[in-house]
Amino acid sequence: MYFQNLVNGLCAGCGYALVALGFSLIYEVCRFFDLGQGGIYVVAFYAAYVVQEWGGLSLPKEFLVSAVIAAGLGSLVYILVYHQLRRRGARNVTLLIASLAVLMLLQNVIILVFGPDIKTIRGNIADIPLQFQGAHFSFAQLFMVIAALVVYALVGLVRMYTPLGRTMRAIGNDSELARIVGVRTERVIVATVAVGSAITAIAAIVKGMDVDIGPTDGLSLVLMAWVATILGGRGRIGNTLLAGIAVGLIGNGVTIWTRTSWQPIVVYTVLLILLFIRPRGVGAIRTSAFEDR
């Protein structure tokens, strides 16, 4: 029983970690938590649903289409909303509120178009049963773990060895200095938002292969990923992966003694306790994420 919960927590945690990775990348260059990623998560899932139901395309093409749509939508939202607010001197708390409005807007658009019912993109391959040391899991759950490890490895390589990755880290360390030395910060920010949104799309599909998703699921998922981002810390990719897994393990560990509905209560309680212990933030990310730069 305990090992089964460990496996379930690992799989769920990898899903949180994927969204937290996109969150963390965007926060690093923008310095505010983009809750609108929850809406992009839902849009990406429904894009995959449309591709599967109406287009009949294969899984790799579903990933490609959803990632492109999410990257384009994320960039568009930044250019039309966040960038314009920043030009007008908006504070970071204003940007946070705007991102919540984007989340609600996208969710309600999905409800208007597709209705409030949950949808599925699970195929026969996703439900293939697997077993390890007495623990049962599906191919979709295994794929979620593999996808998280691969995406984290690729992002780590990009950040370390590519011009985009180096400029992302430079802006994260000191955006003003990066601008002074000639870095086109807004272009890099848009590119980073596009990458983060594409990662959110990947998370939506691998999660959708495991469970059905509805139009309002983006909010709960993004809040869990928000916890993982805070615990992991800005600029610490490996820590974000471990934090996402920790959130999944804590949430699923609760089900040993009580109902599943207690998962978010316990996770948020643990976050509060850790922030009381480290009031300036856990894993080098500050609780001043809401403050002005």
Descriptive report:
- With 293 residues, the chain is mostly helical.
- It has a single domain, classed as ABC transporter involved in vitamin B12 uptake, BtuC (Orthogonal Bundle).
- 73% of the residues lie in helices and 3% in strands.
- The chain is built from eleven helices and two strands, in the order ααααββααααααα.
- Strands 1-2 form a two-stranded antiparallel sheet.
- A hairpin with a 2-residue loop joins strand 1 and strand 2.
- Helix 10 crosses helix 11.
- The longest helix is centred in the N-terminal third of the chain and has 29 residues.
- The C terminus is likely disordered.
> Main β-sheet: number of strands, strand sense, barrel status?
2 strands, antiparallel
Number of domains: 1
Total DSSP helices: 11
CATH class placement: Mainly Alpha
Quote the average pLDDT: 83
Shape: globular
* Termini Cα gap: 48 Å
Give me the CATH architecture, please: Orthogonal Bundle
Helix content: over 70%
- Structural class determined from secondary elements: mainly alpha
**CATH structural fold name:** ABC transporter involved in vitamin B12 uptake, BtuC
Query: Oligomeric state of the chains?
Result: single chain
Strand order of the largest sheet: 1-2
User: Order of helices and strands, N to C?
Assistant: HHHHEEHHHHHHH
Strand content: under 5%
